[in-house]
Amino acid sequence: MTHAEELRSLPLFEGLSADQLAQLLAVATVVTVTPGAELFREGAPAASWWALVDGAIELSRVVDREETVVGRMDVPGQWAGGFRAWDERGVYLATGRGKVPGRVLRLPATELAELSKAWFPFGNHLISGLYHTARSIESTARHRQSLVALGTLAAGLAHQINNPAAAATRAVDDLEDTFRTVTSSLRLLADREISARQYAALDALRSEVGTRPSVSDPLARSDLEGDLESWLADHDVGRGWLVAPVLAAAGADVAWCEHVAAVVTGPALGAALEWVASTLSATALLTELKESTGRISELVATMKSYSQMDRAAMQRVDVASGIDATLAMLGHRIGGDITVVRDYAADRPSIDAYASELNQVWTNLIDNALDAMDGTGTLRLTVAADADAVAVSIADSGKGMTPQVAERAFDAFFSTKDVGEGTGLGLDIARRVVEERHHGTITIDSRPGATTLHVRLPARPLTRQR
């Protein structure tokens, strides 16, 4: 049995008169708390208000299909729920379960609303208005931030995919033309009635030149093209200006052409060289197509690794791999004037973490560092073992922060960027991910020409609620 005098000793009920406490107890119920017993569930209508009298209640939330402890009510007078007294759509923000034996006062939200209106009419209007205003602003802001973040990442990914996709499309178009040349030159060889022995010898010469190192030096290739064009003209080979560049790029020289002329003579020589050149072109185009599509596959795999969309929420991760995936996602922002230095210790430990959330932290910190350098400077990324933790440092050579900015950098809603800029994830949320979700620390060390964000994450497994 809970008496009015017992409630009066709790800071929550200070200032209530004896009559008010009596009214409260008349409509409330005292619930006995037992370890493991569920009192209320996340997402369910917050139709009751719970005030702790004694004992302890553990609060947990489901994040990415896994339940995680996010708080604890263990001080008498702490309360939860009852939001429907002021907001008809109010739901419980977490699941509450008994941690140690105790008692809790349960009051229906409808009764709480009536008491609030009767006792504090002006305050009741303020609270109700605050709920609706906060819900509207938070919904709009989160939607906008999500769109900005998604647009930024999508634009970066599209930029990176554009080049290999364009190269693959170009290679396919050129391959179509090359295939026509292969078939037409084979038809000409058949019309010239070369023997099977001649064709086998020609194919052996084609295979031999295919194993030679390609000529990458522009001047050397230009000289070789000139020599080949002259030789082709002297031997009445038509379209030498098309054949010579391909043969030169493959490393074929005049001596090789002499070997071909010894195998295939007369009018068939031109068709033979054109067939060899077209097959070499097809091989080069297939290599280019393979590299381009391979690059696209790498980008898709990087995106999957970055988003962790096909993996469990909490997993054993290598922090350095997450940072590398983030760098790949932001590759469009890293120009030639920015030097990226990676310093990853070989003995760095893997940690149990919410990988996708950490990747969002790395995205924010690296994006801020790139902004600070304004296209020129050094980005230094360090991952090292630190006793029972992994220590990450992200440093840039930008202009740095003033002491006033550094002091407020982790404040909620504080930003030095214009509207629409950035990734949509502020340092306040990054701090929450590091400190509240992973029980780590994040600090700033900034001076002109050198700003470093230090993140320390424990290597031991995080405590999870079953």
Q: How would you sum up this structure, described in words?
A:
- There is one protein chain.
- This protein has helices spanning 4-8, 18-27, 109-119, 121-191, 196-210, 218-234, 240-250, 254-263, 268-307, 319-329, 355-373, 403-408, 427-437; strands at residues 29-33, 38-40, 48-63, 66-73, 79-81, 95-108, 314-317, 338-344, 351-354, 377-386, 389-396, 441-447, 450-458.
- By secondary structure, the protein is α+β, with helices and mostly antiparallel strands.
- The chain has 3 domains: 4-119, Jelly Rolls, CATH 2.60.120; 161-298, no CATH class; 309-458, Heat Shock Protein 90 (2-Layer Sandwich), CATH 3.30.565.10.
- Helix 10 (319-329) crosses helix 11.
- The longest helix has 71 residues, at 121-191.
- The protein is elongated.
Coarse shape: elongated
The number of E-state strands comes to 13
Sequence stretches where pLDDT stays below 50 over 5 or more residues: 418-424, 462-466
SSE run? HHEEEEEEHHHHHHHEHEEHEEHHEE
Given this structure, which CATH class of the largest domain is correct?
Answer: Alpha Beta
* Number of structural domains: 3
Helix content: 40-55%
Which architecture of the largest domain per CATH?
2-Layer Sandwich
Mean pLDDT rating: 82
Q: β content, as a range? A: 15-25%
- What is the CATH topology assignment of the largest domain? Heat Shock Protein 90
Compute the separation of the termini in Å: 32 Å
